# Entry
Amino acid sequence: MAAAGAVLGVDVGGTGVKARLTDTDGRVLDDHRVPTPREDPDGTALAAVVADLAVRAADHGPLAAVGLVTPGVVDETSGTVVLAVNLGWRDVPARERVRAALLARGVDVPVAFGQDVRAGALAEVAAGGPALATGSVSFVPVGTGLASTLVVDGAVVSGGGWAGEIGQVRIPTGPHAGLRVEEIASAGAVARRSGAPSAHAAMLRVRDGDPVATTVWHECVDVLADALAWTTAVAGCHTVVVGGGLAESGPLLLDPLRTALAGRLVGVRVPAVVPARHGDAAGAIGAGLLARRALDGRVLV
# Structure
């Protein structure tokens, strides 16, 4: 039985902080988004933002726990962000910073800590039912950056915090040689390279036939398919769940991605490529699950 009380799940992204407050039954009590603080190398400003969100959550009743997830390479045991390129963080004691900021605002609750993609994978697998509960499943949010998480028989593979950093691999050959995968295959890259204010705006340009945006889009699909083909061949994934902002374009991304992936996996089982159920809220929902597990006394990812 889940422990009583509301929990606040906070997902720190490169451009925004997503927070979701839920009760014991998973009912959403509040959903809030604020910009990620800039020029915050030690995480102090971010910790203040989380404390503000926790105080706001108290308007809905007693808060039992906070779950915090961040991008990058994280050490869940020590509560440290080892490296988060999009945040400009290295060796930041994020859980300790947030805990201190909460106490300074009079909020004394447990703080669970994890990595955003692994937390999002927990949320997606939990929502996927029996079909995702067994075998190898890859969760790939295509957002500001690019990473993935492998879930095997319901358990997240963390690799000591280093697993799934597919966005950081350098492209060895071709027109993008020397660049990291996420510099081509991410929502942030699509927006930047197409000259659009956002990935959504770039997607609209693709639908309108803009040649620059269309080329950038196709290059994103090709590089992403390369990364997913290797992931699938190594791990034997039966399903790839694609999330993040770019997945909200639906068939415009997923249809050519399915075709490109199938073309690369000759003689290998081609996984089902499906959209994430929770969209870009998966990380915050997963953070809430971590907070609930902390209250239940279960082991975190």
Observations:
- Residues 6-118+281-296 form a domain with the Nucleotidyltransferase; domain 5 fold (CATH 3.30.420.40).
- The two ends are 19 Å apart (CA to CA).
- The mean pLDDT is 92.
